[in-house]
Amino acid sequence: AGGGHGAGGPSAVFQPAPVAESLSDSNRITVGADTTWSAFFEAIGDDAGMPIFVNWHAIQEELDAEKIGPEKPIGLALKDFRPAEALRLLNERLGGYAAIDMRMTEDRLTFATRRYFDRRELVLATYDLGVITDGLLNLKDRDLLDRTHKQVIDVVTSFVETEMWTSYGGDLGQIYAFNNKLFVQCPARLQPRVEWVLEEMKQTLESEQSMSPPIGSLDRPIPIVYIEGGVGTPGAYTLAADGVPLSTVLAACGLGRFERIRVLRSQAGTEVAVHTATPKDFSSGGTQFLVRPGDRIIVE
Q1: Cα dihedral across residues 129, 131, 132, 133: positive or negative
Q2: Are 171 and 100 in contact (CB under 8 A)?
């Protein structure tokens, strides 16, 4: 399902460009295959009871002049079609990324290319990454955070009109991440898609976490681990399962700067060191050691 505004929506929007209202679903047009493009646009305007403006300069600058022009036939018979659906079918015949689009303002209908409107409707929005980066910020692991940022950006740019982004040679979309924020500048029509992709990523992580109840709660006395030393909140923590990654445990207790982390475990009645980690281990991704009930974690 698509994401709605709220926890998963933009936390702030900078200079939002107005997006034109749509025509009513009751609007219908009927045209023949030999209808010219000029007459086609006029038919939409007549049906809506509005004057039209056709930006032929923008249209012919981007689209094949052999296929579209004021006196060129549209080449497709359309009976009782909604204008937006008619445009979609004709754009499929034109082929390529460039497409005809329309916007309705208070006093007219304007026809131009989608790219023309996209440039005029660029929106810069920020999104909270939330659960995607929260634990990493607590760990203060900049390299791991950077890799996570890159993965988020790769997913968004791969599924939201890839050719538009500057990282893929486009000139309409820019995307950057900083800490728990994602800054996205792209056409207004695509921001809901960006939001949906991010929301799906969050829900995936939240679902994984729900399968293992969070540590840090003392609702029940066992199983627990003990955390000592340079953390924000040392003490006893419940474990969600028999084995929980060390990085997950430390994220819950406010890990700060450290030189070494030791995990001590009771074996045959004697407490022995079963794992040692340094900041370098965390930055290289080697932090998936599983902590078990009864372990004692010492942060030095």
Answers
A1: positive
A2: no
